[in-house]
Structure formats: structure tokens, C-alpha cells
Amino acid sequence: NKKEDTMKIFSENEVDSAAEVLTHDGVIAVATDTVFGVCCRMQSEAAQERLRYIKHRPLDKAFPIMAADINQVEEFALIEETGRKIMTSLLPGPGTVILKKKEDLPAYINGGLPTVAVRLATSDQLKKLIEKTGPLFMTSANQSGQPVCQSIAEIEQACPDLDGILKGRPSFGKASTIIDCTSPNIRILRQGPISEEQIQRVLGK
């Protein structure tokens, strides 16, 4: 009978307690600027396995990574000129950039792919959290292939095995723009709140 370990709900200022759960390889839900996300520490393969289990996500789908700042991203990805322009001008914001991974990146982190998908912390709350835990795997709060959860009640229902939920409020309510920055000619892989015009303006085109 597992009733007693019900999911912990952390208020918006209980970042330290939420970070503690992540440090012990737990998986929690958080609000990003776009949608609710579920996350765990990037440096732990055990945490990633738990996240896969909670999301029922297939092994061949790598998780996006959310970092506190560009310095953290440089620890695991190569940022070329185009990517740097996009990141310094449009992030943190509702965008995900695809970058080439660093050679020595452990295969479990991105399923052995040559690239990683990266976001920068979209709120002070998330930045504080990631400064305590290191970069996080961050994926939308839902079961793989299902609609994204819009509220804490929906998250509890869709992901009952979570170790906690850190309260917050997403603002855009739709998934981020995905921008492939692995070559000088960027490609938009998913339309989202950041428009193609904004991107071209940053690149001076």
C-alpha cells in the first residue's frame, strides 16, 4: 500500500527543498515559460531512467536539457557563432536550440546522438534550482505522445509517480520554438512563440 508517499507539492519559494529531491535522483514537475515540464538531474543516469519510466518515453528519444546559463551549456555542448547569437539575443525565452554535443559527453545523456537540445532557465525560480542541481533534463509534463498538462491536477493524474511538483505558472502555454543551430544556415524544426522574423533579425538577415 503506497498511499503514504503521496507527491510533495512545493510552494514557489521552496526551491531548496525541490533541489534536494533532484539531488537524490528524484523527478519533479516545474513550470517553464512555455508549459509545465518534468525534470531530473542531467548528471545522473539513474535519474534519467526514472524520468523515462514516469514519461513512458522510448529509449531512442533524447531529452532536452535546461541549463542555468551559457557557461553551463559550454560544459556539454559546442556553441558556434550562429548558436551564440541566438542564445544571447533570444534566450532565456520560449526557444530550444539544437547544438553539437561535446565529444566526451556520456552516451546516455543524448542517446549517443551528435547533437543536444538546449534551453536556458526561463525564470529566476528555475535558475536558482539549476544552480543548485546542475543542468536538468527537461521535458513536457505528459505521457509521451499525449497532450501537455495545463495544471497541477492534470500533472498528478498524468504522471502519478512523480516525486514532487514545484508550483509556478507557465506563460505561453505552447511548446518552445526549436531552432537547429548546428550549421550556419539555421533551420526551424518546430514553430513556437519565437518567430522566424525574430530569428532572422538577430542574425542580421
Describe the protein's architecture and organization.
The chain has 205 residues and is an alpha/beta fold. The chain has eight helices and eleven strands. Strands 1, 2, 3, 4, 5, 6, 7, 8, 9, 10 and 11 form an eleven-stranded mixed beta sheet that branches.
List keywords for this structure.
205 residues, alpha/beta, eleven-stranded mixed sheet, globular
Write the layout of secondary structure elements.
Layout: E1 8-10, H1 15-23, E2 28-31, E3 36-41, H2 45-55, E4 65-67, H3 70-73, E5 77-78, H4 81-90, E6 95-101, H5 107-110, E7 115-120, H6 124-133, E8 136-140, H7 152-158, E9 164-166, E10 177-180, E11 187-190, H8 196-202
Parallel strand pairs: 1-9, 2-9, 4-7, 6-10
Antiparallel strand pairs: 2-3, 3-8, 4-8, 5-6, 6-7, 10-11
Q: What is the CA-based Rg, rounded?
A: 16 Å
Helix and strand run: EHEEHEHEHEHEHEHEEEH
Number of helices: 8
Largest sheet composition:
11 strands, mixed
Silhouette: globular
Could you tell me how far the N terminus lies from the C terminus, measured between alpha carbons in angstroms? 61 Å
Instruction: Note poorly predicted spans.
Output: none
Total beta strands = 11
Please estimate the helix content.
Answer: 25-40%
Can you give the mean pLDDT?
93
Beta content comes to 15-25%
Give the helix/strand class.
alpha/beta
